[in-house]
């Protein structure tokens, strides 16, 4: 067909041979309006459906429309045996179901077969003690180490330190950090604020205000001064990793400049991971008592979000305030991130400490 269905980079993930004209038209309508989904959601849909399509092709089964839900169930079982956890398998199930829904189709017995299988796999993981992987905490102690090591003569050092500080101050997701614009910055009473718009849980243009710390507010204008010649709209510029120089922005008469690109989430991941390795190397040169406490795994793009949440809760801030600071809709993620330091989960311990204090004073 001349027009790819559900196209990403003009690669189709849907074979139209077995679809009616109505179902093809439904998919073309979506393909013309695919921007309604986030780019990462589209990529996820493309990747997971393609994997299922390959599985079906190896067994001479038509993936769309899928006539038998047990085919998808067998695929999920196989992926589980390969090491995929229930959380990933849910994404596979969602993607295959989504592509059917977009075409105006349904998978027969999806709820009774696929949902049941996912529950069985999840229960097996619970019995085996399989833990959900969560980003490790990048806390204030780690941030202080980074700030102390700042090299003001290195543009790369300034950008990376600023990135870590803004992620910590704002409990930013890595995608939010990548897509910050310079015009989202405001100076109020000597300190800077950033208006976070179009976030994962808030698609409005009103956004949420993030108040930057004194250190971050002092570092920000220094960075902006050094990147002023770039003229790009994104706050965090692409910098050559070896030379530490700004990547040249090709001039354009179009506004915003179509050649201006945000840093990638991979760049954010690398900045956090490299920080973990730097602190690890630092610890190796010191005695055990002088070590900076580090998690076993390297930091990731979500680590500042986790670490700042834990630091706030440890300092006595209410969970609801942390929820607002992190732009969550419910307290669930706050409780998940901070369960190791949150005193409300240590009720009996706190009760016993009170009793022992009273006993010792009598």
From TrEMBL:
Domain Tyr recombinase: 133-350
One Gene Ontology term of the molecular function aspect: DNA binding
Pfam families per record: Phage_integrase
Biological process annotations from GO: DNA integration; DNA recombination
KW DNA-binding (keyword) present: yes
Entries under InterPro entries matching the protein: DNA_brk_join_enz, Integrase-like_cat_sf, Integrase_catalytic, Integrase_recombinase_N, Phage_Integrase-like_Recomb
This protein's UniProt keywords: DNA recombination, DNA-binding
Top-level division of the source organism's lineage: Bacteria
PROSITE patterns given in the database record: TYR_RECOMBINASE (PS51898)
Presence of the UniProt keyword Zinc in the record: no
The protein's name in its UniProt record: Tyrosine-type recombinase/integrase
Source organism (scientific name): Moritella marina ATCC 15381
